[in-house]
Here is the input.
Amino acid sequence: MARFFIENYGCQMNAAEADSLRTLLIASGHAEETDPARADIVIINTCSVRKTAEQRIIGRLGFYRGLNQQNGTKIRSVIMGCMSLHSGKELRAQFPDIVGLVWGTYHKEQIIPYLNRLASGITIKEEHLDWDTFDFLEASPEEQFPFKAFVPIAHGCDNYCSYCIVPYVRGHEVHRPAGEIMDNIAKLASQGVLDICLLGQNVNSYRDGNMRFPELLAKIAAESGIPRITFLTSHPKDFSKELARTMSEHPSIMPFLHLPFQSGSDRILAAMNRKYTAADYMEKIGWAKEIPGIALSTDILVGFPGETDEDFEATMRIVEEVRFQDAYMYRYSTRPGTAAEKLPDQVPEKVKLERLARLIPRQKTIGRELLTPYTGEIHTALIESVSKKSRHILSGRTHNNIQIFVPGEETLIGTIVRVMITGASGMGMKGEII
Ligand code: SF4
Here is the structure.
């Protein structure tokens, strides 16, 4: 029996896989440690979407080397996930005293048999970086929020956006059989899960035979009894009128849509290989805005190679025209092996930071402005935790995924309540339970 500690980094897909792996490890007799210093094995589920994510992993391995030197312990680590695909061997060479096993993004559950050997100090020289068939792990309730769950339905991506490393580390798109998804969701519902997020790097290109994403979503809404259903991450090229209609027709499908546009310039969108134009994107936003109570969020990448001031102005125009509730805004970071790595006209870091310094406050102002009209309205919200500010203030999310703070007792955590909105609070709202 090994005492393990899981460190998870990156996207919701990694989080979902870490939750599933945790459930499998405990079911196979291993014990989870809450303090990494007391663990035999630290499982690091890595991310390589940006350089900073990778630097963090190297820092963690140095931390465990320090712990071993300080406490005389023999903590070993399993490096798995996206970074291990292209840097696993280097990490082992740099940290031979810490890195016990290097594993890819496939078959994460198959590390279990290795844990005993690692815990007894045996060094395992193998690397498992190759992939053949992808098996979806059964989704489990989230560790921190056991009334919520991420449910992977698709894995990998075939879009090859020129700045993105995902297709090279997660492989080709694989879609989970619909029957398996329905069974998994039925089990989650029986475990008291009220809120599910369907996951895929390109979730809305899902297909299982004749069943495409809108049909799957409608089936889950009609049959699962789960009151809050959402999905991540959609690609604009696969966002259809039918999907917008399906979201409008089923009250349990949360009126929240994350639709990354990345840039407002057609020239840059083409160089990114995004497969849509700004006009295409705006047309699809038009369909989305017909969904009652919809809240929109997006991803915006500034400083892509060759991006001019005019290109950036085109991005700002989309921000002004759409008015997103929220956005992930970041600067381009060169990823090894991607098509954009070799592009000329890399934008200076100073210019990237100047553009972000203009974009972020403007988007935040828009986000706050969009909250004001909610005052006086009644909405349902899932109470998730106590707020960081006070144990008597609860934090939750409305049906359209906006954060809300309400006074209340901790016994309400994990329940859906009706709230009278009384105003904005930071990038969220505040209200009273009614
Ligand atoms: S759609 Fe593009 S950005 Fe998204 S995971 Fe696929 S390649 Fe990456």
